[in-house]
Q: What sequence folds into this?
């Protein structure tokens, strides 16, 4: 069994596929686009395993392809939409426990700047 088959059932894929943006058509033709479902499986594999993109198993599309698809879907807001739908569904079934939710700082962008107690360097001062 491939890694993506254990995670991505047909039922789950049907629900996710409709949330993905449609790819732009290229009038010149070109290389066929990699399968969205296989890319989604590769992205999930990387996110769940914590592995580097270049360690993606060979039965998935190439690492750069999966990375670009992840980037594009992130910019399109796909992951936030999926997360929101998942939370709504868990809440609907009474599985969501708000007192057990937390925000992981790895998802919050760090703001550039300096601490109030830090002294300015000679260059910046």
A:
């Amino acid at each position: 069994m491939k890694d993506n088959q254990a995670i991505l059932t047909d039922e789950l894929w049907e629900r996710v596929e409709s949330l993905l943006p449609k790819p732009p058509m290229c009038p010149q033709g070109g290389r066929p686009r990699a399968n969205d479902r296989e890319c989604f499986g590769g992205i999930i594999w990387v996110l769940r395993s914590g592995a580097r993109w270049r360690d993606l198993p060979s039965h998935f599309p190439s690492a750069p392809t999966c990375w670009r698809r992840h980037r594009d879907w992130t910019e399109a807001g796909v992951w936030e939409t999926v997360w929101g739908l998942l939370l709504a569904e868990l809440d609907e079934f009474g599985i969501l426990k708000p007192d057990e939710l937390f925000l992981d700082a790895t998802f919050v962008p760090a703001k550039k700047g300096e601490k109030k107690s830090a002294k300015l360097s000679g260059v910046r001062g």
Summary: The chain has a mean pLDDT of 81. The chain is about 45% helix and 0% strand. The CA atoms of residues 115 and 121 lie 13 Å apart. The first helix runs from residue 3 to 7.
